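Troubleshooting: if your tokenizer reports a length mismatch, compare your output against this known-good record of 249 residues.
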Amino acid sequence: MLDYDSEAAVYDATRGGLPRAEAAAAAVLRLLPDTARSLLDIGCGTGLVTGRVAAGRPGLRVTGADASHGMARVARQRVGAVVLADARRLPLPDASADAVTAVWLLHLLREQGAVRAVVTEATRVLRPGGVFVTTVDKDACHDVGSDIDEAFTPYLVPAASDRTDLVVAYAAEAGLEVAGDAFFPGHGQGRTPQSAAHAVRGGYYASRLALPGGAAEDLARTLETMPDQERRRADPEYRLLALRRGAAG
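Known-good structure output:
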């Protein structure tokens, strides 16, 4: 797992920056009810997406939450209210938010029961009729059928923690039902063999690839033998799922 305290300084520049964040925020806004007046963004990271959501919906009170001190410090420069918090234990009362969002979070939660706990906690803080909007199948969305993806295939983690069917099942247990979805492009996230090799050595694919022992170096060397080392392959397309808490829930 990456050290997100130190990663905060370079996160935006290496993750598609403002274009990707604006695409994500626009998709989130499409799934929010017009009546929503408060939103909690868990795993807000540097707050780049969080800030764009706030800017896109005047009157919406937006709060960010992240477990990383470094990320929260950067996010506070973009979002007035940011709390340091584990997404499984949010410092909010029951039924206190109209919407909860989690963009690029669930796929990172590999500990047994972690995703279920986050979905349950998001439901707890939602008001009846509120929505939980989250990315699903994040790592799978990066598979664009490229030669890089072919090289990754032998090392893929067998069960992603943010698979749609799992998230929907956890949501149903908590009292949420599917209310819609939206897709958005991952601008700037198309990989080159060169950048993929660097990321493999740096541990950036921990949620997607199992690389024990010398496997990371073996894969990196394979990537470095590919043609067109600096040519970006296609950008991924991400999926957001909206899950609504029942009006009487």
